[in-house]
Amino acid sequence: MSEADRPPPSRTQQHPAAGLAHRVPDLGALELLLAVARLGSLGRAARETGVSQPAASGRIRGMERMLGVTLLERSPRGSRLTSAGALVTDWARRIVEAADAFDAGVTALRDRRDSRLTVAASMTIAEYLLPGWLIALRTERPDTAVSLRAGNSAAVARMLLDGEADLGFVEGLGVPDGLDGTVIAHDRLLVVAAPGHPWTRRRTPVEPDELARTRLVLREPGSGTRQVLDAALAAHGGLAPPLLELASTTAVKAAAVSGAGPAVLSELAVGEELAARRLVEVAVTGRGLSRALRAVWPRGARPAGPARQLLALTR
User: Fold this and answer.
1) According to CATH, what is the number of the domain 11-112?
2) What is the pTM of this model?
3) Which of 3, 107, 171, 282 is deepest in the core (most CB within 10 A)?
């Protein structure tokens, strides 16, 4: 007989486990049967398992119909297992013990997951926002060990997709491919320079064309700051080659303070330097230097446990 002529497999052949649900009583019924065997009374077993006596009787009768055997002999003095009932009870005990072991194992896995949290965050969020959130999380979950991994937004996305982090935070233009996310805050990028730079003395704002032509101290490609700046200046010829290209917000800020040249940094990162006049904000025309800050996680895997609690704290 050819493959084309062969009859399709039966439902049970297609899914061997599917028929089990029609032949094996549920755990609640098996636990009731074990209680009857131990206590010798359907009424006492019903009270112990938290059901009414009529409901308990109905469950036993339902099992007997399903299995095709009589499990109990009922009398005014109580309920006694039949010989078939004794066998079924022995098998039921093994099923319930296996279910208890399964539940204990899953609980242990959940507890182990909930005792650790790895967070990946882009530099500005890692340096200026996460410390406060993590202190608040420690107050609520003192037994959770938290590991923080910092990198640019592209690196954060890779860590999440590779399973190396439970929750991430990015600063780019949108949610990276393969991730879901939600906006938790908004941020503004500032053009800043040391007090002696000519831009700090001018009376008119810097135009986007001039900003695009100027060699700046910048973060590396892949950072959220660089993504926003590239997009904002794309219509003006794009960014000139960087004066310096550095891998951290702190390094960019230090170079700008030293007078190396103008830089573009998050408002979160330069508050102290602006207040102390170590840096000066340079006015720029246009409104393209703002961005959303996002919490992100692998698509379809909504944060749970401590990750979910940390996400709630960011709100």
Assistant:
1) 1.10.10.10
2) 0.62
3) 171
